Automatic annotation (TrEMBL):
This is Twitching motility protein PilI. Residues 35-173 form the CheW-like domain. InterPro entries: CheW-like_dom_sf (IPR036061), CheW-lke_dom (IPR002545). Pfam families: CheW. GO terms for biological process: chemotaxis; signal transduction.
Amino acid sequence: MNAPRQDVRARQTRLHDYQAMLARRLREARSLPAVDSYLGVLVGQRHWLLPLAETGEVIEMRAPAPVPLTQPWYRGLVNARGNLLGVIDFGLFCGEGATPVQPGSKIVVLSRHVERACGIVATRVVGLRHAVDLTPAAGAEPGGAWQGAPFTDRDGRGWQVLDIGRLLDAPAFLQAGRDAA
């Protein structure tokens, strides 16, 4: 009879230790200079670097509630800790086709300020990336107004910095609604 209680306590202790380790690692990562720390995400086939200082949380993928009369790239709304969060198919927004959703896909919240926050669908969250591990892409120029510097990692994989502030201020991004036809 005591064995099941001990198993539950042992699992609770392991879970508590794991949560403490995750919290510690996030604090450590956020203590690095903002220009040096990124969250790497895969959207479709494209790798993006989201500045850690401007990135909110990563939440489990769930089907957003559709919103009528919105752009095709506006997936809908989800409840994120009691706040409604607009979810964007960033691949469609970029003109690259719908972002594939697969097991392990996530919604990554852009902005730490609730009033400006929205989420993008990430095919996969790759993890933390640091500037010391990246090389500016030779001869490459930043793309649109919200696309920051391009980089290459040690494996030769191309990465694009997402300027979250500029994206959240871009008129095309702010116009999620469409006219009724």
